[in-house]
Design a protein that fits this description.
Elements lengths: L5 E8 L2 E7 L8 E2 L1 E4 L6 H13 L9 E9 L7 E10 L8 E3 L2 E7 H5 L8 H9 L5 E10 L2 E12 L2
Parallel strand pairs: 1-6, 5-9
Antiparallel strand pairs: 1-2, 1-4, 2-3, 2-8, 5-6, 7-8, 9-10
């Protein structure tokens, strides 16, 4: 079992994903999914629910968050990988929020088609790989992102098993 200190969530509403345009590193100025860092003795699930609420005011019950695996990064030969826990949820109409701006960045809904556009350079590059796969089945995956000096080189998918 992996115990990374970071979490990230794909939050969907119809054909849109709630994204954050960060105003600090990493991914400063790029659209990415919402996430954060665990506090002492906090589970990854508790962390992502808290982070979503703190950053967007959305209150998402834990039962709605689906564990979709982990995202790791480094080079292909890295034995010690950094990573984060990945969650997914789909919201209904009454939960949708409008644009929010705070000290973390700007939050708004972006159409999935716009995010996945191959020439879209404003989105964190590994997000596209995750979004293309996350809906396929009920399995958990490790998405290992291989970066070199010129950016993202590849994302290797490894099945971790079914959701519980």
């Amino acid at each position: 079992m992996h115990n990374y200190i970071y979490t990230i969530a794909i939050i969907q509403y119809k054909d849109e994903i709630l994204l954050q345009n960060r105003i600090k590193s990493p991914w400063n100025g790029m659209w990415n999914a919402i996430g954060g860092k665990k506090e002492k003795n906090e589970s990854s699930l508790d962390c992502i629910v808290r982070e979503i609420n703190e950053e967007t005011t959305l209150v998402i019950p834990k039962e709605m968050m689906i564990d979709k695996g982990i995202v790791t990064w480094g080079t292909e030969k890295d034995e010690l990988r950094s990573g984060m826990h990945l969650y997914y949820t789909k919201l209904d109409d009454k939960n949708k929020i409008d644009i929010i701006k705070n000290n973390e960045g700007i939050y708004t809904w972006k159409r999935l088609e716009w995010i996945l556009e191959k020439d879209n350079l404003g989105v964190a590059p590994n997000l596209k790989y995750i979004l293309r796969n996350i809906y396929k089945n009920n399995k958990r995956y490790e998405y290992h992102c291989i970066f070199e000096t010129k950016g993202l080189v590849d994302v290797i998918f490894k099945e971790l098993g079914d959701n519980k």
